[in-house]
Amino acid sequence: GEDVEQSLFLSVREGDSSVINCTYTDSSSTYLYWYKQEPGAGLQLLTYIFSNMDMKQDQRLTVLLNKKDKHLSLRIADTQTGDSAIYFCAEIPTSGTYKYIFGTGTRLKVLA
Amino acid sequence: DTGVSQNPRHKITKRGQNVTFRCDPISEHNRLYWYRQTLGQGPEFLTYFQNEAQLEKSRLLSDRFSAERPKGSFSTLEIQRTEQGDSAMYLCASSHRTGNDGYTFGSGTRLTVV
């Protein structure tokens, strides 16, 4: 089946690091993505990683990819209250289409 | 370009009525996607277009749903004979042809069927 799994909730204190985890399904997926959704809004692309990479860093964001375990993580350094949102990972399965398969989302709550 | 624009933002309709949503993508993007998101879930794929051609439809898109992109620019999503189960956020996104560098999403249209 096509299920991208994420834990539902994460709570961290302001200034700490957050790590959001995702397990995807298609070992042949070439691109994997992280999106952020704030209440009542659409999804905002945060970052993406190509499958031949193990790590990608972009300012406070670090993406780690373990292809063997089909595990993707997003680390947010120095988490701020403005980072409170739902975070979705997504893959494009190599089935000849460009549709995303999204996870169920992780709700990040940052405590002041 | 102001991004992907969706109208209306909110729609409340009575069961059995027809509704139509509009999406204006980023002008240089030739791919356009529709997704549906219910509370507590990730977005689910409905359909996508490359230019005016509808290239794929999900089995979620029943006969009551139809999407068009007549001139390869804006798109409409129509739901006929709405049911309470159609209540959801309908998200539109656009991308360059490959889409590998990600989509740009609109803010969505929230449909409530009463």
Task: Describe the overall structure.
The complex is a heterodimer of chains A (112) and B (114). Chain A is mainly beta and 112 residues long. Helices cover 0% and strands 53% of the residues of chain A. The model of chain A has no long low-confidence stretch (mean pLDDT 90). Chain B has no helices and eleven strands. Chain B has strands spanning 5-7, 10-13, 19-24, 31-37, 44-50, 53-57, 65-68, 75-79, 88-95, 104-105, 109-113. In chain B, strands 2, 4, 5, 6, 9, 10 and 11 form a seven-stranded mixed β-sheet that branches. Chain B has a four-stranded antiparallel β-sheet with strand order 1-3-8-7, with no helix packed on it. The radius of gyration of chain B is 13 Å and the shape is globular. The N and C termini of chain B lie far apart (36 Å). The interface between A and B is medium-sized, with 24 and 30 residues.
Which keywords apply here?
heterodimer; A: 112 residues; mainly beta; 6-stranded mixed sheet; 5-stranded antiparallel sheet; B: 114 residues; 4-stranded antiparallel sheet; globular
Considering residues with a beta carbon less than 8 A from a beta carbon on another chain, report the largest interface and each chain's count: A-B, 24 and 30 residues
Element-by-element helix/strand order of chain B: EEEEEEEEEEE
Low-confidence stretches of chain B: none
Net shape of chain A: globular
Map the helices and strands.
The complex is a heterodimer of chains A (112) and B (114).
Chain A: E1 5-6, E2 9-13, E3 18-23, E4 31-37, E5 43-50, E6 55-58, E7 61-66, E8 71-76, E9 85-91, E10 101-102, E11 106-111
Parallel strand pairs in A: 2-11
Antiparallel strand pairs in A: 1-3, 3-8, 4-5, 4-9, 6-7, 7-8, 9-10, 9-11
Chain B: E1 5-7, E2 10-13, E3 19-24, E4 31-37, E5 44-50, E6 53-57, E7 65-68, E8 75-79, E9 88-95, E10 104-105, E11 109-113
Parallel strand pairs in B: 2-11
Antiparallel strand pairs in B: 1-3, 3-8, 4-5, 4-9, 5-6, 7-8, 9-10, 9-11
